Amino acid sequence: PPRRILLLGEGNFSFAAALCESAPAARFVATCYESEEEVSGRPLAARNIRRLRERGAEVLFSVDCTKLKDYFLPSDRVFSCVYFNFPHCGRKAGVVKNRELLAQFFTSCAEVLAEKGEVHVALCSGQGGTPADRPRREWHNSWQIVAVAAGARFILSDVHPFNAASIHGYKCTGYRSQDKSFSVEGALNHVFTRSTPLLYLKPMVCQMELGSRRVSFQVPQMLVDKINRGFLELNSEHPVRTVKEKLTAVLSQTFPIQSIDCSLSLLHQGHIGGVCHANVFWIIPKPEQDASTEQMANGLANAVLFSHIDFCKDADENGCMKVQEGNLISEQYFLRPSLLLCVQTLIERATFLPETLHVLCGPVFRKCPISPHSLPVFHEVVFVAAIDKGMESSFMQMLVDTIRNGIYLLHQTVSGCKLNVTLQEATSFERTELNGFATSESHITKIQHSIYVETDVSGSCEKGWCVGSVGTACGGGKSSGLVIVFASLNLDLLAMLICGIADWRMLWTSDERFLSQFLGGELRLFKSFSLYPPSYVHDVSFWVPEREQFDEVAFHTIARQVSRETVVSIQLIDSFQHSETARKSLCYRLTYQSCDKSLSCQEAAEMQLLFRKEIQRCLHVILR
Length: 624
Fold this sequence. Notes:
The protein is of the alpha+beta class and 624 residues long. It is 22% helix and 27% strand. It has helices at residues 14-22, 36-40, 43-54, 95-109, 145-150, 239-252, 343-347, 392-414, 428-434, 491-499, 512-515, 552-563, 601-619; strands at residues 4-8, 27-31, 58-60, 79-85, 113-123, 154-161, 188-194, 204-210, 213-218, 257-259, 267-269, 282-283, 296-300, 303-307, 333-335, 357-365, 377-388, 419-425, 445-455, 465-474, 482-490, 536-543, 567-577, 584-592, 622-623. Helix 1 runs parallel beside helix 3 (43-54) and helix 12 (552-563) packs antiparallel against helix 13 (601-619). It comes from Crypturellus undulatus.
């Protein structure tokens, strides 16, 4: 069917006439706010109305842009595109009234726009309040168009100059509600599209086989939408899988390669040596008899997922351990923080071959502070080989060089920009954080070096992004007497660097406009479909409980869950200790911003209120 295009707020209909002539296949409905009698008395407007009607366009008068559905039958309320050029309340209306007009317009527009339709709003220079404006006004003095549109579930997907000179016959009019022109130099056309809704995740319980037992456990709330996305499956076109496949292909030119299936359990039991336990998602299993019988298959490593609300009371919804003093837990379960936990299982397999590079990949989970490059869940690939003693250093160097060349090749193919891959000795923090993934004291991995990637836009720290590590592990089974060499890479960070994706959350978006840019498994530079998303700042201050150490990682984890991953920054802005009582007070600043969905001011405020309640409940702080 032909596209239906709605034009609002036409003054002399010159824009509508020009657009109608340039797109003869489309069906146009051109409207204005004034009555037919007022408009018909203007010669230019009368001529343009005749031009429109001669081409089959419909012309309507006295149309209020805030009540659009009232002017069309239900069957006619689907427009592919809506244009509103230079909206204004009239006369000397200030920015607040014009924001209110835009807010009501977007709400009304949502009722008549097609699901994949566009809303075009042209504003004079500086009015929009986005970085595209030159010059850019102070935020409080702008129309804040992106934040206003977010209230009606729209995101800004494109912005470009409004070139009046290129529109044949166009003449702007309406200066202070008069038949006078105004300056459109530097004007911008803002293109809005519908946003996918913020996710309201239902509680979930997972059942999986662990040894000879079937274990039921609560999935940490912030991981419910990430536990089974299938990014690495054979039919996936996700850039994370493409990076893994192309990097493995490069390595196969130098080493014999054997890919390992990803059937290893997400859940582990036992001891983790050398890892900060506050950064692990701990799991307390439910008694088997309490598990729901209403199950549904999901293909997750012999697991089934189902909705269930009667959760285990010994671990909270964030995977934080709740252990009362004197209460010893004999069974410690956790979601795997690294595939290095699986190295020992791998080398004990009968299929494990010395001097062959074995490839293992899958999702891993770690609680971490909030930042654009700190990922609570990501896809890890581990390359493992058994080497004769004395040869490990040269083999490790050859492995790193091949990985470096692979990253160079992928990045150059996509962007052509320069980047630098370096191998640096692991810092004490990295050794403490990552070393010692083991299920027993006799089988332990030792990270020796970290792999850093520097680009012109990395900006994370002076030495770039840490995308992986290399090291050794003790051999076992057929590999006794050999040295196990491994390289671990964060596929998500590599995909971000190679494709120019600024925020890790975009990798997990459900919006089809992300994956549509990587059809056929091709790596390309990513173009964001949500430009200049609005951000909202909220502060919270509280007294820390006496005789308790404040858990900042848990603080960040609660923020992730409550905000549905819309908190992008948490900063400690003040710390105070009372001189008499020695009580300690902390003040944090939270910044809310979504990279792929609309987020309104009201939604952010509601999240902040819930966050205050949750930290009071879970961390026992006293709000100020």
